[in-house]
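Researcher: I'm preparing a figure for a lab meeting and need a structural model of a single chain. I don't have an experimental structure, so a prediction will have to do for now. The sequence is pasted below. Please return the structure as tokens so I can convert it later.
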Amino acid sequence: MVYLILFVSLLVSACGAASPTDDPRLVTRPADRTTLCDEGDGTACRDMALELMEAPATSAGAVRVFNLLDRACQLGDVEGCYHLAVLWERGIGAPPNVEEARALYQAMCDRGHTSSCNNLALLVARVDGNLEESNALLQGACEQGDGTACFNVGWRAEQSGALEIAASQYRRACELSFWEGCFYLGYMNRYGKGMPLDEAAGAELYLKSCNGGYGRACSSLGSLHEHGAGVEKSEAKASEFYERACKLGFARGCTNLGIAAERKGRGAALYEQACKSKDAKGCSRLGVAYLKGEAGVEKDPTKAFLAFKTSCELGYGPGCSNLGVMYEDGRGIDKDIDRAAELYDSACALEEFQGCHNLAAMYEDGIGVPKDMEKATDLYMKACEGGIAFSCSYLGSMWLKDADKARFGRELLKRGCEEGDSFGCDQLKEDNPT
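Model: Understood. Here is the structure written out token by token.
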């Protein structure tokens, strides 16, 4: 953050007349920060570095930031030392050096800098595996009023099943304006984890977190308004909060806003923005838009392929399944049945159950994989259990032809029909025309 301080000269000569340089109407400014930094002002060096960190990252810029923070630290600026330690730990501007980072965190923690204590605690747990020392450091920082440390204490408590302790620590973090703590406390309220279930109270905490600038809370609040869960059901409010999340840099908010915009024939630009920020769902939605030529873009199989590829690489099951379809059909890429099977398998492992169904069909027909009806049946059943109604119907129709399995086949057909699959309904009618 840059601070601009204006000094107004109010010095008047003994006889009451102001000299040209003492004119109270003139505003003078301090020397520029480069000069101040060169002259030994550590705060100026640190502020220059932090401002540079907001610019697009380059290797030369990273080195410049590192050198400025190194000078700030040498000049005794505690915040400068803290940020320098972060660079040492992450290997930004210089090769990573955990021991340098540890030494700086420790020195600044000893001087009462609680953020350094928090980072030291995380480093001790990650590198040394010493949770006892790490927890003590976090607890000490929390007691000194560091909201981030309180949140980390709460998160560890939640992972260990100590939900009441987690809730109390999230509440403390929230009170200290660590807005992620408000969100996590709201989540516990909404689902009755460690406290009585209270959807309205949870929504209020989401709002507090969102107003504090935590984008994920804005996106979640948008979802609550979209579905009317503990708050007024309102498409307008949902879009408002999705937009706030997107502007705060929470990529899933951009995706959700894109879904709302898609109903009006737009959305692709928002999906692209989300995808560039590594939201896998946004990439997958962008791929569908290019594949179908909707949401404000023309059909472009190559762009669809690239979007699905990014989505899959980010670990999103639907992206992998859609990419498999592209390879199986040869759209936007050369046809590759073996690769399609691999992608369906990946999607299925990620619990994208359409991928399980697609892979089952390949095992049934022996395309891209060896013919194996036992595997095909298992995959159809997995897809059915995962909510793919047609999988239930298709497997049911297969079993209907087997006297030993006909009863189970009818049950699957009924399930498929009840879940909205017309094929299952038609098969039931054929089986029992009366």
